[in-house]
């Protein structure tokens, strides 16, 4: 069986999303838990890449970094307020079920 995506949620994502993912036994870290509150986007990408985690964010600065060809394990972006917590959770769970880490590395997924 191929490896599974691990997620890292940036500081603007509700903890309820992390809780929902964990109930499904999906490996997830949060910015607060990793003492990265206030850390730059580059530092967050560095952390996530070292841990082979896909960043889930509402922050379009991550999209700008992606355009610079920065190395990352993947970015899932959702415009702030465009989806409910349930919709975000369901979409991330679907990505976890259907996409391998190799398929998302270096790419951006929009939800």
**What's the gyration radius in Å?**
13 Å
CATH class: Alpha Beta
Distance between the termini: 26 Å
Low-confidence segments, given as residue ranges, are: none
Instruction: Specify the overall morphology.
Output: globular
Give me the strand/helix succession: EHEHEHEHHE
Q: How much of the residues is beta strand, in percent?
A: 15-25%
What is the total domain count? 1
Number of strands: 5
Kindly report the CATH topology.
Answer: Rossmann fold
CATH architecture: 3-Layer(aba) Sandwich
- The structure class reads alpha/beta
The order of strands across the largest sheet is 2-1-3-4-5
Please bin the fraction of helical residues. 25-40%
Q: What's this model, at a glance?
A:
With 111 residues, the chain is α/β, with parallel strands linked by helices. It has helices at 15-23, 41-50, 61-67, 85-98, 101-104, and strands at residues 6-9, 28-30, 53-57, 75-77, 108-110.
Structure description:
With 111 residues, the chain is of the alpha/beta class. The chain has a single domain (6-110), classed as Rossmann fold. The protein is 40% helix and 16% strand. Helix 1 crosses helix 4. The relative contact order is 0.23. The mean pLDDT is 95.
Topology overview:
Layout (H helix, E strand, L loop, with lengths): L5 E4 L5 H9 L4 E3 L10 H10 L2 E5 L3 H7 L7 E3 L7 H14 L2 H4 L3 E3 L1
Parallel strand pairs: 1-2, 1-3, 3-4, 4-5
